[in-house]
Amino acid sequence: MTRDDLTLLFPSENDADLREFAIASIEQRTVLINGKICNWTGPIKDVLSPVMVRGRDGSLSQMRIGSHPFGNVEAAMVALNAAVAAYDNGRGTWPTMPVPERIKAMQRFLARMRARRAEVTRLIMWEIGKSLADSEKEFDRTVDYIQQTIEAFRNLDNTSSQFEIVDGVIGLIRRTPLGVVLCLGPYNYPLNETFATLIPALVMGNCVVFKPPRNGVLLFEPLQEAFRNAFPPGVVNFAYGDGAEIVPALVETGKVNVLTLIGSSRVADHLKKVHPKSNRLRAILGLDAKNAAIIMPDADLSLAASECLSGALSFNGQRCTALKMLLVHHDVIDSFISEFLALMNKLTIGMPWAPGITLTPLPSLQKVTQMTALLEDALAKGAGILNPGGGTAAGTLFYPAVVYPVIPAMRLFREEQFGPLIPIASFDDVDVALDYVTTSEHGQQVSLFARDPYAIARIADSLVNQVCRVNLNCQCQRGPDVFPFTGRKDSAEGTLSVADALRSFSIRSMVAAKYTDPSREILNAIVEGRHSNFIHTGSIL
Question: Which of 34, 121, 124, 411 is deepest in the core (most CB within 10 A)?
Answer without folding.
Answer: 124
